[in-house]
C-alpha cells in the first residue's frame, strides 16, 4: 500500500490536506488576477491602436506600446508573481 509523503511523523514538504486548501485558493485567485491583467495588457492596446496614432520618436505610439510596453508589462507580471509566491512560501 503506497504511503503519502506527508506522514503523521511530520516528514513531508509542507502542510497536507485541509491545511493546504487556503494556500491553493489564494494561488488560484492570484493566477486568475494576473491572467486578467495579461489579457488586458495584450488586448487593450490593440483595440485602442487607432486612437494611439501619434508619432513618438518617429514611429507610431502603438508600435512602441507593442514593441516595448507589452513585453515590459509581461516581465512585471512575472516578477510580481515570483515575489508574491516567494513570500507565500516563506509563510507556509
Automatic annotation (TrEMBL):
Pfam families xrefs: DUF4212
Domain Sodium symporter small subunit: 22-89
Location of region: Disordered: 1-21
InterPro entries: Na_symporter_ssu (IPR019886)
Superkingdom as given in the UniProt entry: Bacteria
Transmembrane annotation, as ranges: 30-49, 61-82
Alphabetic keyword roster: Membrane, Transmembrane, Transmembrane helix
Protein name as catalogued: Sodium symporter small subunit domain-containing protein
Originating species: Bordetella bronchialis
Taxonomic lineage of the native organism: Bacteria, Pseudomonadati, Pseudomonadota, Betaproteobacteria, Burkholderiales
Amino acid at each position: 500500500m503506497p504511503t503519502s509523503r506527508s506522514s503523521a511523523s511530520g516528514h513531508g514538504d509542507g502542510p497536507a490536506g485541509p491545511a493546504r486548501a487556503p494556500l491553493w485558493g489564494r494561488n488560484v485567485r492570484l493566477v486568475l488576477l494576473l491572467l486578467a491583467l495579461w489579457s488586458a495588457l495584450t488586448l487593450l492596446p490593440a483595440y485602442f491602436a487607432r486612437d494611439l496614432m501619434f508619432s513618438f520618436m518617429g514611429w507610431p505610439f502603438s508600435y512602441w506600446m507593442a514593441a516595448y510596453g507589452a513585453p515590459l508589462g509581461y516581465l512585471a507580471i512575472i516578477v510580481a508573481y515570483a515575489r508574491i509566491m516567494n513570500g507565500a512560501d516563506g509563510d507556509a
